[in-house]
Design a protein that fits this description.
Length: 111
């Protein structure tokens, strides 16, 4: 998963000046890590700690590094029942939504 994250970080900041790219990579990494920690900490704990951490990191990576979504989907087995993941708050105030992976498709709801 580490190489997927590193490649996605490079893709996401391609074209920025070096210093700006460094700052943006660090900012995205911190956001992703904080999101993964929050999700893992709020997990009900019905799975192994490794699976909880892996799922939280995968969800956070997809949420904060969209360029990694395809590579992670290829690495992660698809569950029978897709679990909705809250969308990042990129919409103006009062707008929100969720998305869920259904096979190779992403369904966005509530926007």
């Amino acid at each position: 998963m580490g190489s997927v994250v590193a490649n996605a970080l490079e893709t996401e900041v391609a074209g920025l000046p070096r210093e700006d790219g460094d700052v943006e990579r660090a900012r995205r990494f911190v956001l992703m890590a904080a999101s993964a920690i929050r999700e893992a900490a709020s997990s009900p704990g019905v799975d192994s700690p490794e699976n909880i951490a892996r799922r939280a990191l995968s969800n956070a990576t997809i949420r904060h590094l969209p360029a990694a979504a395809g590579a992670l989907a290829a690495m992660t087995p698809i569950a029978d029942e897709a679990q909705p993941i809250p969308a990042p708050n990129l919409m103006p105030s009062g707008h929100s939504g969720t998305w869920a992976r259904h096979g190779r498709h992403i369904v966005v709801e509530g926007l």
